[in-house]
Amino acid sequence: MKTLLRLLAILPLFACNNSNAQIPSDTIRTDSIVQKQTITLLFAGDLMQHQAQIDAARTSTGYNYTNCFEHVRKEISAADVAIGNLEVTLGGKPYAGYPAFSAPDEYLQAIKEAGFDVLTFANNHCLDRGKSGLERTILLMDSAAIGYLGAYANPDVRQQKYPYLIEKNGFRIALLNYTYGTNGIKAVSPNVVNYIEKAVMEQDINQTLTLLPDVIIACMHWGEEYVSLPSKQQRELADWLLTKGVTHIIGAHPHVVQPMEVRTDSIADSKHIVVYSMGNLISNMSKRGTDGGIFFKMTLEKDSVTRVADCGYSLVWTDRPAISGKQNYVLYPANHPTDSLTETSRNKLSIFTKDARKLFEEHNIGIEEYFFH
Q1: Which of 82, 99, 154, 188 is 20 to 30 A from 315 in CA distance terms?
Q2: Does residue 337 have a cis bond before it (omega within 30 degrees)?
Q3: Model-level pTM?
Q4: Is the peptide bond before 213 cis (omega within 30 degrees of 0)?
Q5: Could you tell me if residue 216 is left (phi over 0), alpha (psi between -120 and 50 degrees) or otherwise beta?
Q6: E strand segments, 91-223
Q7: Rg from Cα positions in the chain
């Protein structure tokens, strides 16, 4: 009965961003009573590498992805912590796209140079190159000093590194990460992949709570591909995660954006963000709705308690050589000047942004768009 009452109490009551507002990245504000600390987290969608992307990045000496992120690097780097979903392996040669992804090592370096600090790796492509591919990807992330979570070389490493703890600006933030599956490929012992299994997740959440984090954020690889509204299963699982102690939920996998909402738990008087899908950050997908995604930015504030001070989404679109005439794939924020884009690129950008904004205007609850430069 208590669980039912708690579910009924989680209602959307909180508006979380003013349109066009820029969220501060690292500030400490004071008043007459208490000093407040803040931290800004930026979440991004699927970082993919299809064969056409690999071909476009090829140079005479290797692969170059630097200009892919040139228009969004400042926004990523401005966050205290930036988290992306690595939807490929770094399994070594031969490099390949779908269905068994293995991206060049230079791709990870470009991701790091773009400003990403942490990568979620529990997704349906993390085992595309089997045991060797998973372990090589993890080794490269460790070597590049990029944090990761969701898949591990062995149970001992998982025990040491999971949940992923962010300790910065006086905050203690725990990240969890789970996937619905791995395309029918099973992890080979001793490798471990975090699957969406309630018994395991509940045990993980309970263990995380003993670490006394300020917030617990679950990064979920879930939902139905190319579907713009969350499924019944996604909504039910979100409810379950919140009742078990998760504070916020950030979703990926559908390759299109899905709505987001802020809920208020009237029993605990706490606010919870649920982002069902961030879509693709960068890919070669061209089907309507798959050629873009969002950055989701959240600023937490802490004095005697931790709360969401501000949050919002920003639309990001991928221009492709086939329509841009340029060598490489390039990410553009929705408000980027379009003078330099081809007519076809401008039209594609317009379609993506109009579709996404229409979806969010109809279905978002308490979360609005922000713009960056």
Answers
A1: 99
A2: no
A3: 0.91
A4: no
A5: beta
A6: 118-120, 147-149, 151-152, 164-168, 171-179, 192-193, 215-221
A7: 20
Residue 56 CA to chain centroid, in angstroms?
25
**Using one digit for the tens of pLDDT, what is the confidence trace for 22-33?**
333 343 344 445
Kindly indicate the confidence band of residue 34, based on its pLDDT and cuts at 50, 70 and 90. low
Specify the pLDDT at position 15: 55
Cβ contact 34:308 at 8 Å: no
Inform me whether the pLDDT recorded for 255 exceeds 80: yes
pLDDT digits (tens, 9 = 90+) for 75-85: 999 999 999 99
What are the tokens at 3? 């669980």
Q: How far apart, in whole angstroms, are the C-alpha atoms of residue 110 and residue 116? A: 9
b/e 270-290 (16+ beta carbons within 10 angstroms → b): bbbbbbbbbbbbbbbbeeebb
Alpha-helical segments (H) within 22-118 = 51-57, 73-78, 105-114
Residue 64 tokens, joined: 């170059």
- The C-alpha angle 233, 85, 248, rounded to 5 degrees, equals 50
- Measured between alpha carbons, how far is 224 from 46 in angstroms, rounded to an integer? 15
Cα of 195 vs its chain's centroid, Å: 17
Domain spans of the chain? Answer: 28-38+78-182+216-222, 289-373
As a three-state string, the secondary structure of 223-256 is CCCCCCCCCHHHHHHHHHHHHHCCCEEEEECCCC
Give me 190's structure tokens: 């001793």
225 Cβ neighbours under 8 A, 6+ residues apart? 253, 254, 255
Q: Which amino acid is at 280?
A: N
Q: Which residues, at least 6 apart from 262, have a Cβ–Cβ distance to it below 8 Å?
A: 12, 14, 15, 16, 271, 272, 273, 274, 308, 311, 365, 366, 367
- Asked if 80 and 25 count as a contact pair (C-beta separation under 8 A), the reply is yes
Q: At what angle do helices 198-209 and 232-244 cross, to 10 degrees?
A: 30
The full length of the chain comes to 373
Q: Give the pair of three-digit tokens for residue 198.
A: 């309630």
Residue 293: name the closest of 333, 252, 256 by CA.
256
Task: Tell me the sheet residues that pair with 262.
Answer: 273
Q: Token match 């930036």: residue?
A: 82
